[in-house]
Design brief:
It is built from 2 helices and 3 strands; from the N terminus they run βββαα. The protein is an alpha+beta fold and 70 residues long. It has a domain at 23-69. The radius of gyration is 13 Å and the shape is globular. It has helices spanning 53-56, 60-69, and strands spanning 23-31, 34-42, 49-50. The structure holds zinc ion.
């Protein structure tokens, strides 16, 4: 069974608030009480971070794995 990785967003994302095009940025995230950095789409204007559905639903184990690598 192949394990899926978090795929980078290829389509353009626009912030709902400022209509600014979002760009990849390293953001701090917290999971299970641990802080780590992850690359996510972020609005350069208001700093809103877009969390893809794949990340929000069931891909957190992947984040946990990348945490252990550090
Ligand atoms: Zn924005």
């Amino acid at each position: 069974m192949a394990q899926k990785v978090i795929e980078p967003e290829t389509r353009k994302l626009v912030c709902n608030k400022c209509q600014q095009e979002m760009a990849m940025a390293e953001v701090s995230a917290t999971y299970l009480g641990a802080n780590f950095e992850i690359e996510l789409m972020k609005c350069p204007s208001c700093g809103l971070v877009y969390v893809p559905d794949s990340l929000a639903t069931g891909k957190m184990e992947q984040l946990e794995l990348s945490l252990e690598d550090k």
